Structure formats: structure tokens, C-alpha cells
Amino acid sequence: MMTNNKYVQEWIKEMAELTQPDNIVWIDGSDEQTEALRKKGVEEGCLEKLNEELLPGCYLHRTAINDVARVEGRTFICTGKKEDAGNINNWMDPKECYDKLGKLFRGSMKGQTMYVIPYSMGVVGSDFAKIGIELTDSVYVVLNMLIMTRAGKSVADALPDDASDFVKGLHARADLDENNRYICHFPEDNTIWSVNSGYGGNVLLGKKCFALRIASYLGRKEGWMAEHMLILGIESPDGEVKYVCAAFPSACGKTNLAMLIPPEFYRNKGYKVWCVGDDIAWLRIGKDGRLWAVNPENGFFGVAPGTNEHSNPNALASTRKNTIFTNVALNTDNNTVWWEGLDNNPPEHCINWKGEPWVPSMYNKADKINTSAAHPNSRFTAPAKNCPCVSKEFDSITGVPISAIIFGGRRAKTAPLVYQSTSWRNGTFVGSIMASETTAAASGAIGVVRRDPMAMRPFVGYDMGDYWAHWLEMGKKIPNPPKIFHVNWFRTDDEGHFIWPGFGDNMRVLMWILARCEGKVDAVETPVGFVPKAEDIETEGLDVSLDTIKELLTIDRKSWSEDIENIKEFYKQVGDRVPAELYEELAALEERLK
Ligand code: OXD
Ligand code: MN
Predict the structure, then answer these.
(1) What is the pTM of this model?
(2) What region does 519 belong to: left with phi over 0, alpha with psi -120 to 50, or beta?
């Protein structure tokens, strides 16, 4: 045992009695142990070593074909009272769930090793940091957790002997049976049980399960916030850095925005962008009355397809060493990796994500999942310190002060390029009505609106209405709160083409947002909030006309009015804990749109 903490010892003993591993190994975080585990992974066949010259320290892993994404339908919040989990979450009675999953865990580690991973979300020693322990039978999970979190002996040492408030995570692959796959959270016991999956978001328990679902519950209890947000800093030529957080639904480009490269116009002036985080922010009120943020993670678990020299050179650079790739294609000519959208040269000899030989002619846009070389949700797990634009404050124990919170969605018509809410309360409303439209996927309707409040729909560990109430409550407590904005990079013209160039040019919108925070620029009042005057969006070096900017900033009253009906239905679905203040905001918006 690496600790004298008797709560840890007893819990591990109990879990070992349940799962019956042949032996138990503590993860110490040393290079020697990590290297030995990589070798073991290769021997066992769960990892393939990639070209050491081109991709030093990099490995490829393939999950089971039926196990390639988070499974929201099999994710449960197990609170004593069903109402506390709310209508948006799946709920199971805790006792029933422990019994049901106990049967699946029983004996599941026979013949295997149980790894004990002590890890910290946040820098050890920071007021933000929280400790968890994950028990797993998967070497792949261990190696990913060593990248995604601060893990090992230093964390075990930091856990006081009498602490019982660590997060207890148990994971077993079992039979990878999708019909018995469960990702269950017991916020009242600080516990997470995950069984029958080997895919990242379901099994790297520090990430979505702890840092969002359990942490959001703790944040409400303790007066802070756990959010699905990137954190980035914009450095001006005089060296001052201002920070913003942004929440977008999954697969809407958070990693790209977090690592953006400023347009040449700004680069020449000396502006820089620094990445603090690409997925999760923990926010606390600082002594100075501002809201401060840390990224509790230590790596990036990014979507590979679409990542390239143009879309995100910093992310690509982050994956060139000590990275684990999951479900991408293997180029067998040189033992490197490839994915759709990396470049226009698919390898001639390649093994696809399913482990089968693949040639470029197999690709069929209408059936991406079955015909692409890399799975559309294939991933890289890369250390944050690999990122060329990682912030100097990445390891700061105080975090960074936040000037603006930015919500965003993928809307063809409804939302303008950017608008500013009129208050924290109105901003909370803006977050609560966040939505994205489905894209041209292989199956399913195009343009269906999915409401995804604060991008937290799958990640709030309690009732959504209570979560909104917590936002409103926080607003009353923060003396100097960030301003709240909404952006939409995805507005299209009548032919369905994107109007805004996106990527690095999104910085032009961020600059308007910062100017608003500093009171340096006027805005136009509209029914939904403040929008920029078209000429205040910097277009130097951009091939977009003033008329196009005007179009991007128009408020389409008809589509907003239609949206109101959808919002009302959604609020009804969330249920009777929706705060009255948000209904008032909704009524006021409806009135202004008339
Ligand atoms: C993620 C997600 O993997 O949001 O970050 O799905
Ligand atoms: Mn995410």
C-alpha cells in the first residue's frame, strides 16, 4: 500500500474481494513503471508501438468495435431521491445499482491485475485540487490517466491519513458487453462505477465522471462551479493577458478555439493566444472578487479526425510524442498514424480502426463509421506540456482570472455571430437555452435542434433546474463577475455554406468580447442582447465584406420566435425546479421579440 489512509485501505480491500484480481499494483508515476506498463501493453496486444523516430513514445490502441464513444443512455446518476438526479439524467436507486453492478464486477478481475491509480484533478496543493483513486484492470486506462491527470506517489502522499473525501472510482472491462455496460455515479458517496467499457470517456474516470458529474455536485454543495469549458488567454502587445472560458457542445471545436493561432494581422502586432484548457474548467471566487479558473486535467483527449496543420497546428504538434492514439488508422508503410482530415494523402497501406486492411477507395461519405480509416470519434491522448501554446499559468495553483464566459452552439440561422447578455442572470438564461443543430450525419435528420444547456446536458451530476439555480446563486456571490456572451461560428447562407471563416479568425470575435469587458467599444441593443456594430469586428486581412458581417449579426426574429416554443418545451421537460427567474427572462425575451 502506498498510503496509511485506512479508508483507502478498507475500500481497496473490499473492491478486491469483489473483483478478485490475481494481484494489486499501485501506480507510482515513475518513468520506470510507466515504461514497464507500456511494454506490458504491447505484449498483451492492447498497444502497438509506433515509429520511434517519427512519433517517439507514441502508441496505438483499438477499442472493441461496439465501444467507441461515451454512452449517454447507459450513464446514470444514482441519488437517494430520484428528483435530485432530475429529469434530464438517467437515474437508478443507489442500492439497486450497487447490487446490479456488483454482480457484473464480481470476479471480473480474475487472472488479472488490479491497478490502483492515485490521481489529482488540479495541481496538488492548490485550493482547487481534489483527489481520486481509480481501480482498473486496464493498462490502457492506467497509461491514459498518467497523461490526463497528475497521478502517482506524490498524490498518494498528499492524501491525509484521515481523509475520507477522495473520489472512489472502480472500473472493469469485464466482457465489454454493451448490453451490460454501465457508467454510474453516486454523488452522495463520492463514488463512480464503470463496467463493460474500455472507451476513454467511459473509463478515464477523472474526466467526465469526476471532473464534471461528481464535481458539479460538489461545486453546488461547496460554492464553486465545474463546467464543460475551455480556458484561453489572449496576450496583448504590452504583455497583459486576459482570460476567457468557453462552453460549446461536444464536437463544436473547443480544442481548436483553445489553441487558436491569431490571424497574421494580430500576430504582427504582437498578440498571442495561450491555452490553459480545452475541455473542463473549475471555477472559484477569488479573494479579489473575480471568478478564477483552473483546468483540472493534465492532458488533451482530443478528436483526431479534422485535426491538421491548418485547423489546429498546436494540437497536431501536441500529438507528436508520448501520445496514445485510439481508433485512428495505422499506416503500415512507416508505422505512423493517419485520420480523415489530417491531409489529402491517405496511406496506400493501412489498417483501419477496426483492425482490417483498408484502401482509400473504400471511403464513402454516406457511411463514415464503416468506411473511414479512422473512426470519426478516434482520439489522441496528449500531454498538455507538449502543446506549443500551453499557458505559463497551466500549473498555477491560483488559476487565472476570467474576464468573459462564452457560450456557443452550432446554429444555421438563429444565433448571430456574437451577442452579449445584459447581466449575469440574463447570461445564465442564455446558457440555459444553448443549443446545437445536428449536422449532415450518415443517419438521422439534419438540422434537428438539441438543447444542451451550458454544454452540460450529459454532465450535470444533479437536477438541471437546481444547476441553473446554482448559477444564479453564484452570480449573487461574485462581486466582480465575468461578462457573459454567446457566439455562433456556424451561420450559413441560403445554400448552406458557412459564412464565417472560423478557426483562427474567431480571434476577431474574442477581441470584440474583450473590448466590451473593458468598456472600450459600444454595441447595438437588440431583443436578444448587445451585438457589435459591424465595423467594430476587425476585418483587416480577411476576405469578408462589411455586408457579410452585417448579415452575420442580424437577429432573425422568425427563427427566434420558433425557438421560443422549443425552449418552453425543454424547460417543461427539465421540470419544476427551473428557477422562476429564468421563466421571467424567457417571457421578457418573447415580449421583446414581438
Ligand atoms: C469529450 C466530449 O470527449 O465532450 O470531451 O465528448
Ligand atoms: Mn468535452
Answers:
(1) 0.97
(2) left
CA–CA separation, 405 vs 230, rounded Å? 10
CB 79 within 8 A of CB 94: yes
Alpha-carbon span 435 to 567, nearest angstrom: 10
| CA 61 from centre of chain | 21
- Amino acid at site 325: F
Distances (CA, A) of 5 to 146, 206, 264: 22, 20, 54
24, burial (CB in 10 Å: exposed 0-12, middle 13-18, buried 19+): middle
Which three three-digit cell numbers place residue 495?
Answer: 445554400
Surrounding residues of ion ligand 2, Cβ less than 5 A: 279
Contact residues of ligand 1, CB 6 A cut-off: 70, 201, 250, 279, 301
Is 337:329 a contact under the CB 8 Å cutoff? yes
The closest of 162, 101, 218 to 467, measured between CA atoms, is 218
Work out the number of other CB atoms within 10 angstroms of the CB of residue 343. Answer: 11
Per DSSP, the residues of 5-64 read -HHHHHHHHHHHHHH--SEEEE----HHHHHHHHHHHHHHTS-EE--TTTSTT-EEE---
Query: By alpha-carbon position, which residue is closest to atom 4 of ligand 1?
Result: 250
Amino acid at 362: M
Distances (CA, A) of 163 to 4, 122, 156, 222, 282: 10, 17, 11, 17, 22
Any catalytic annotation for residue 209? no
Q: What is the pLDDT of residues 211-261, one digit of tens each?
A: 999 999 999 999 999 999 999 999 999 999 999 999 999 878 899 999 999
**Look-up: residue for cell 452579449?**
420
From CA 465, how far away is CA 456, in angstroms rounded?
12
254: enclosing H helix or E strand: helix 254-258
The CB-based long-range contact list for 234-240 (8 Å cut-off, 24+ gap) reads 234/271, 234/272, 234/273, 234/274, 234/507, 234/510, 234/511, 234/514, 235/271, 235/272, 235/273, 235/274, 236/270, 236/271, 237/269, 237/270, 237/271
Nearest to 375 by CA among 24, 161, 62: 62
Choice among 58, 209, 252, 275 that is catalytic: 252
DSSP H helices in 454-539:
464-477, 506-517
How far apart CA 247 and CA 225 sit, in angstroms, is 13
Which value, to the nearest 10 degrees, does the dihedral of the CA atoms of residues 435, 439, 443, 447 take?
Answer: 60
Which pLDDT tens digit goes with each residue over 274-299?
A: 999 999 999 999 999 999 999 999 99
User: Which of 320, 278, 268, 333 minimizes the C-alpha distance to 303?
Assistant: 278
For residue 193, the CA-to-ligand 2 centroid distance in Å is: 20
Residue 314: Cβ within 10 Å count:
21
Q: Closest Cα to atom 6, ligand 1: which residue?
A: 250
pLDDT at position 439: 66
